[in-house]
Predict the 3D structure of the following.
Amino acid sequence: MAVFVVVFLMSLGICICTALLKWNEVRYRKKGLPPGTMGWPLFGQTTDFLKEGPNFMLNQRARYGGFFKTHILGCPTIVSMDPEVNRYILLNEGKGLVPGYPQSMLDILGKNNIAAVHGSAHKKFRGAFLSITNPTMIKDHLLLTIDEFMKSHLSNWDGKIIDIQEKTKEMALLSSLKQIAGDDADLVREAFKPEFQKLVLGTISLPINIPGTNYHIGLQARKNIIKIWAKVLQKRHNSSSTYQDMLDFLIKSEDPKYKLNDEEIIDQIITILYSGFETVSTTSMMAAKYLHDHPRALQELREEHLAIRKEKGSEDPITWNEYKSMRFTRAVIFETSRLATVVNGVLRKTTQEMELNGYVIPEGWRIYVYTREINYDPILYPEPFTFNPWRWMDKSLESHNYFLAFGGGGRLCPGKEFGIAEISTFLHYFVTRYRWEEVGGDELIKFPRVTAPNGLHIRVSTY
Ligand code: HEM
C-alpha cells in the first residue's frame, strides 16, 4: 500500500512540475520571440544559470543559437552571444535599449548614477565624469597621487604572507578615495570602509526592504555614506583653499553643461568608487596570479619596469611619459581581463516593443549582452586559454570591434584609462620591489564573479 502512495505522490509531483513548466512556456509564447526555454514560474532558469555558469549559456546556444530567450534573475531575458548583435545593441541605446541593471543596484547607487539614466541626463553625468577621469587629468593631476598611494600601499610586504585579494581590494578602494578627496580621504576612510562593503552587498541582493536583508542594510549604508560626503562637501564649500582632487574639480567646474549640485556630486563619488572597485581589484589580483604562473611574462614585465626605475631615484614618481611607455604592462592588463573575464557582459532593457535580430522583443524585457565567449574565440585569439600578453603588442587588437571588456558605444567605460593607470602603477611597485610565490591550496571561482572565497595567499620577499 505504502509503495502505491509513494508512486502516486511521485506521479502527481511530476504532473504538477510538467504543468507548471508548460504553463510558463505558454505564458511567454508570443509571436516573434526568439527560441529558448523559460523554466519555472517566478524563478525561471536562475538556478541552472548560477549552478552551471558559462556552461548553461553554451548549452542554450548549442540548442537555440546565439540569440535566445530565458528567464533569469527575476526577469524574462534575451541572451545575445552574437558579436554583431552585441555591438549593434551597445551602439543603439537611442533606439530604446537602455541600461537594464537590477532594481537593488539602481536604488542603492542613487538616481543620479550613470547606469540609472539615459538621454540628456546621461550626457551630463558622463561629461562630468569624463572631465575628471580623462587622460589630461591623469597626466596633470591623478598620476602623481596614484603613484604616491601605491608606493605607500606596497611598502613593508617583505617576509610576509599576504592575501593579495584583500590587498588589491583595499588598493582599488583607497586609491580612488585618495583621488576623490585628497587628504580629506584620510578623515573619512575608517567610517566609509564598512559602509561601502554593505553598499556593495546591497546592490547584488534581492530588493526586499525589511530589516536584516542585505538590501535594507545597503540602503542604510547609502544614507550613512551620503552623510559622510555631505560633511566633506560642506567643509570644501566653507574653505577658500584649492585642492588638486576630483572633488575640487567637480565643485568648481566652470562648464555649465556639466555643473552638478551636491546631491549629484555625491552620487558621482559613489559611482566612481563602486564602478572602479571590483573591476580594478580583480584585474590586479588576476594579473598577479597569471604572472606568478608564467615566469617568462613576469620577466618581460619586470624588465620593462626595472628599465624605468634605473633612470631615477628610488622615491621618484613615475612620469606620464614613463607610464605611456609601459607597452607590455598594458598588454598584460588586456590579456588578464580577456582570460579572466572580469566582466561577463552588460545588461540592457527595452523601453518599447522592438525588432532585434529579426525577432520582436516585448517592452521591459532584459537583454543580456553576454560577451564572455568572444574572449575565447580561437579565430580572434589563437590558443585562447593560454595567457599570452604578447598578442596585445599589436595595438590594433585593443580597438577590435568585438573586444568589449570595457563595454562599447556611448557607454564605453569612462574609467578605462584611469583604471589602467592604477593597475599599471600597482604592478610597477609590485614587480620592482618584490618576488612572490603562492602559498597554495586557495580556491579560485570564475563565475558569476571572479573571486577567491578564502583569499589568495602569497609569500612575499624583496626582489
Ligand atoms: C579594469 C577595469 C575596468 C573594467 C574591466 C570596466 C568595465 C566596464 C564595462 C564593461 C562598462 C560598460 C557597462 C555598460 O555598458 O553597461 C563600464 C562602464 C562604466 N565604468 Fe568601467 N571598468 C573598469 C574600470 C572603471 C573605473 C576605474 C571606473 C571609475 C573611475 C569605471 C567607471 C565606469 C562607469 C561610470 C561606467 C558607466 C558608463 C556609462 O554608463 O556611460 N570603470 N566599465
About this structure: DSSP finds 17 helices and ten strands in the chain. Residues 302 and 431 are 6 Å apart (CA to CA). Residues 99, 114-115, 126, 129, 133, 271-272, 275-276, 279-280, 283, 337, 342-343, 346, 405-407, 411, 413-416, 418-419 surround protoporphyrin IX containing FE (CB under 6 Å). The chain has a mean pLDDT of 93.
